[in-house]
Amino acid sequence: MLNSDARNLLVGELLATARLSLFGFTVGGLAGIALGLAHGLYPAVRQTTGMFVEGLRPLPTVALIPLGLLFLGMDESLNVAITAFACCWPAFVGTRDAVRGVSPILLETARGLGLKPGRIARHVILPAIVPEILTGLRIGLGIALAVEVSLEMVVSTRGIGALAMTAAFSGRTADLYAAIVLVGLLGFMFNKGFIMLQRMAVRRYGLSAGGRA
């Protein structure tokens, strides 16, 4: 059994992990959506930056740790930056492919009805791409938690990952098992919470989970 001090420590470190994971996920998700929209809507952007972006996508996250340490130091900003980089790409791919998959007939019909570009984007393109964007974000959320915990094990002194490593090296098996279980519970809560938000957004735009009206 864990005493009250150990439980308080576990909860505090878990909250730190959750905060940094969600922060990195938010930054990376927004960046991925913005980049995906640019690549999907503007061929010139895709042609200009496509090779650079595709070169960055397969870059292993761990390869960024030395570079991050050089410029950011062992600070929370390092965790946020690397986590954001890792979970940016599912949002990018989902958004880009969703935009490029919007039916040209649908767009031409909207233009034929006299809709301005702003209304076309809001009432035609956005409802069509929301489910795919949310799918990419959901994948990115899981990546964000995994990357954050991994970073905590390697370069951080805070978070549930750092606590798990400290417990492992000091032989505190109860703390180690508790940390592992809490990471799993946090991932479960992240997933369930996002599913709820996904359903709310899909209902808001009158779409099915597969993106069809």
The best one-word shape is elongated
Low-confidence stretches: none
Instruction: Work out the number of β strands.
Output: 0
Q: Level of helix content?
A: over 70%
Kindly provide the radius of gyration, computed on alpha-carbon positions and rounded to a whole number of angstroms: 20 Å
Quaternary status:
single chain
Separation, N- and C-terminal Cα atoms: 52 Å
Give the class from helix and strand content and strand pairing: mainly alpha
| Beta fraction | under 5%
Output the helix-strand order.
HHHHHHHH
Characterize the largest beta sheet: strand count, sense, and whether it forms a barrel. none
Count the DSSP helices.
8
Mean pLDDT: 88
Task: List the topology elements.
Elements: H1 4-41, H2 43-56, H3 65-72, H4 76-100, H5 104-112, H6 117-155, H7 160-170, H8 173-204
Helix pairs in contact: 1-2, 1-4, 1-6, 1-8, 3-4, 4-6, 5-6, 6-7, 6-8, 7-8
Summary?
With 213 residues, the chain is mainly α. The chain has eight helices and no strands.
Description:
Helix 1 runs antiparallel to helix 2. The N and C termini lie far apart (52 Å). By secondary structure, this protein is mainly α. It has eight helices and no strands. The mean pLDDT is 88.
